[in-house]
Design a protein that fits this description.
The protein is an alpha+beta fold. It is built from nine helices and 15 strands. Helix 1 crosses helix 3, helix 4 packs antiparallel against helix 5 and helix 5 packs across helix 7. The chain binds zinc ion. The site of zinc ion has 7 residues, from loops.
Length: about 400
């Protein structure tokens, strides 16, 4: 008996997965009913081979259909063995609405980081983002604990680290108003503290208002007014430079952290639709417009490109609301995200982890995730790269407020 190695991957429920599981359930039930009907009427036990010829499903690959018949026969066989010692044991007679789908190696293809599971000539294949070697057998089943589908990919032996099929490390970032960046790589969640950046912006607003008030008091065209306008521009430019400096240091720090961890792709949650056509009221609008995700995004993009990290933009719709564990949508009320399934996490960490999951098309494995760590701003932040970047350093003050 060879050693088996199984790689599991959770998948969100989709119409395609539902219809595959239903087709499998239908075929299983059909096989089961025909088998027992023949036993009852003709007193004959049909062989598995005959059954495979007799019943197939038009929505599944021929070998996937065979696998379902084989499943029925193996449970029949195990009942016959069990029966010898336990007279009360029951044969498989229950029909199934849904059943697991199995793809054998003939139906599995791996190309360009995508696993293509064939469902027969006339049907859409199932395509899954795949960063590992090609498996021998793939199974699609229902994960009852997480209430989602699960892919189980079986390898004959533990997949060898192949230099050609390197595991692609992917991180995602959520650019936010309170925390300028939250980065998640599947295990670590790093929250960049934005308190200092916000205080500088607050000061900029205050100064702008004060100076405008002074200017308004002067007569139009007067020398004093002109002098004040010049001074206003100079003072604001200085603060703008300070803000730029902070953003540069934050993004440099983030990119060197990613590089150190061997991240190859950074997924950036795209918030651009937030600004368009939405009115949140004067105060929130001011905050949103100053929330310089555009400039932080640009800096991240070109700095990543410089060190060879690919960046991808995806929409961040609903990513801050969906529970990482059970996919239920909740509106977080404070800095902590809490779900009825007892899952709890830092609110902004949920967003980044969901963006990553959305890009990968999988449900995150909550059990793998470490507590989020905070990165506080300080003038020498970009050169202060220690082991913390690899291990994650849970600081007490992650929260901005
Ligand atoms: Zn939940």
């Amino acid at each position: 008996m060879p050693n088996y190695f199984v790689r599991k991957l959770k998948l969100n429920r989709t119409e395609q997965l539902d219809s595959l599981a239903r087709a499998a359930g239908e075929l299983y039930s059909r096989t089961l009913v025909s088998f027992w009907r023949t036993v009852r009427k003709k007193r004959v036990w049909l062989s598995g081979y005959t059954m495979e010829r007799w019943h197939t499903s038009p929505s599944l690959h021929a070998h996937s259909s065979d696998a379902i018949t084989q499943c029925f026969y193996s449970s029949l066989k195990s009942w016959r063995v069990r029966r010898k010692t336990d007279p009360n044991s029951k044969p498989p007679k229950r029909r199934r609405w849904y059943f697991k789908v199995t793809w054998k190696s003939t139906a599995i293809k791996l190309k360009d980081g995508k696993l293509r599971l064939s469902n027969g000539k006339d049907n859409q294949p199932l395509i899954i983002e795949w960063h590992w070697q090609k498996p021998k057998i793939v199974e699609l089943g229902w994960n009852r604990a997480s209430q989602c589908y699960e892919i189980r990919a079986c390898y004959a032996t533990e997949p060898v680290k192949n230099s050609l099929i390197k595991e692609v490390k992917i991180a995602a970032t959520d650019l936010g108003e309170i925390h300028p960046m939250v980065i998640a790589d599947g295990v670590n969640t790093d929250i960049f503290n934005g308190r200092y950046l916000r205080s500088v912006r607050r000061y900029q607003n205050k100064l702008k208002a004060q100076l405008s008030k002074l200017i308004d008091k002067k007569k139009k065209g007067s020398k004093q007014r002109k002098r004040l306008i010049k001074s206003k521009q100079k003072q604001l430019a200085k603060i703008n430079n300070q803000i730029k400096d902070i953003e540069h240091k934050l993004t440099s720090r983030a990119v060197s952290m990613l590089k150190l961890r061997g991240i190859q792709t950074l997924v950036i949650g795209d918030v651009r639709n937030i600004r368009d056509g939405l009115n949140y009221g004067k105060k929130v609008n001011q905050k949103l417009h100053q929330w310089n995700f555009g400039s932080i995004r640009e800096k991240l993009e070109y700095k990543c490109a410089k060190v060879g990290i690919k960046t991808v933009l995806i929409s961040e719709e609903y990513t801050s609301q969906e529970c990482l564990n059970c996919r239920q949508r909740n509106k977080p009320k404070n800095r902590n995200y809490r779900c009825s399934c007892s899952f709890e996490f830092h609110r902004d960490g949920v967003g980044a982890n969901n963006i990553r999951a959305k890009y990968l098309g999988e449900v995150p494995v909550v059990g793998l995730m470490a507590r989020p760590s905070g990165i506080r701003w300080q003038p020498h932040i970009q050169c202060n790269l220690t082991d913390n970047c690899l291990l994650g350093n849970p600081l007490d003050s992650i929260d901005g407020e």
